[in-house]
Structure formats: structure tokens, C-alpha cells
Request: fold
Amino acid sequence: MSGGAQLSVTDLRRATRHPVDLPVIGEHRRLGDIMLNIANVSTTGFLVVQAPDLGRGERVTVRLPQIGRIEAFLVWTDGARAGFQFERIIRQDDFTKMIRHLQPNARLRGKG
Reply:
């Protein structure tokens, strides 16, 4: 049996990313609670800086404002950065509410 993630969301890296500065606690099966600093987020995933030492396909569960708990899979790492893909796409209306909560400055929210 393969140890990697079986991602159900297609690779949608062209999804609009929104810059954020969001520290969250991720729940990891082996490591327990881990700190993640989310630097940008989209409807399909997020980028963390100062990433913990995880392998591709490992899963974490995070709690996001307006969204609640959602699981994500590690897709790539590059030094201290790591990209995670959500196990499901976040609905656009819920995502917009989250971005408004995280970025009260309309200039940072971009179009949408």
C-alpha cells in the first residue's frame, strides 16, 4: 500500500492566492500539534513558511477562520517553504468571508 496521499483535488495551482500572515496550529498524526505560519491561501491550498520537517503526502488538519477544520496534504517543499493542498476545494462564498476576516484592507484582497 502506498504511503503517499491520494489527492482528490486536481492540480489547480493557478487559483488566486491571497497573502496572509496567519499562524495556526496543525494537527499531525505522528507529531501531534505543530505550528504553521500560513503566508498565502487559495480555495485549493496554502503556503507555509518555516515549514516543519514533513514528507510529501503527509496530512495536517488546520482550523481556518470562517472555514473551520480542514485537512490538507503536503504537496511540495523548497527549503523553509511548503505547499499544502486542501482535501476539498473551499466554496467561494466561504473563502471570500475568510479573506475579508483576514484582510480587512480591501486593497490586499484583490479582485473577487
